[in-house]
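An example makes the point: we print one protein in full, the chain in one-letter code, the fold tokenised, without further comment:
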Amino acid sequence: MKVVAGLLFVCALAAVATLGVLDQHSLNYAQRTDFTFDYDGEQLGATLLTPEGKGPFPVLVFLHGDGPVDRFANGGYVGIMNQLLERGVACLSWDKQGVGESSGDWLAQSMLDRAQEAQAGMAALQRQSGVDVGAVGVIAFSQGGWVLSELAGGAKGASNVDFMVAVGVAVNWRRQSLYLQRERMLSAGYSEEQIGTALAFSEKSDRYLAQNNLSYDQYLAWLRDSAAPAGVLTEPMSPERYRFVMRNIQADMTAGLAQVKVPFLGLFGEKDRNVDVHESMQAIDGAFQSSNWRDYRLKLFPDATHSLLKAKYFDFQTPEEWTLSAEAMFLILGPDAFAEGFLDSLGDWVIATSKGVEKKAIN
């Protein structure tokens, strides 16, 4: 009987622990409003989360990175959204086209398309209660940085954006691709000489593809005849991915950054394997210095990844590389999976900036 009782006690503890782990990944909102909005003939499935307390609340709109991302990034946004909700900031996010409850195809979009889609999403806030449409910011992750720069560069309705946050963004599409390749080859054990040869080939190839409007069949023929050196990926892109890349291969944040006239926060991880964060920070700083814009802050977090997670546990380049132990650690750590100080830095800046925007609007 004692053995049975002991086993029951252990099982009870495990159940409690499991509930605690799961609770860390639950969204802590006062109200959830699911709705759809239209853009370019497509229906986008969206969610607005509002916090406890008396509104209207400032809002942060989420701009996703690459891939088929749903409105909560498969749970990856939960810790970030909870940090904002706890501080009195509402969150708006939607499924990318062709994902979840959204129609369309995100691979058929340019960064300008996505910026205009974001404007449609922000316009839909006018129909929602409890939010302050005079204090609306955007938070862009990774590839979303080019969406942010299109908004700043004059996408229709860009004046609706009152502040901007950029997390792990690259400035130039082609240079980011080369950096990504370099990091992949370093991890695979290639020598510096091999990496140099491969990068020179890839840089020349990217320039050729960017300058020529090859059909998909022409691209496949070019790829077969290209005689790529060791370390260069030779698996062809799908037709959809190829057209997406060609639609966006000239993306660069520089022109859009020069047009930024709202408070701006850039957050980066020092151990980023996807983006050269030092180049990004220098380019952003240079653009603002040139345009004489001073209301910005850039912060680099040591031992942090592309997604601002702790590199000690999550030092991967793609989600496909995650191990079972890393997935388990993410579940166990919850918001503590993020780099030390990231969530507080984000939350403090957003709430202080949104209050400043509200005060300016009143005056």
Notes: The chain has two domains: 22-172+251-362, 175-237. The CA atoms of residues 28 and 198 lie 47 Å apart. The domain at 22-172+251-362 is CATH 3.40.50.1820 (Rossmann fold).
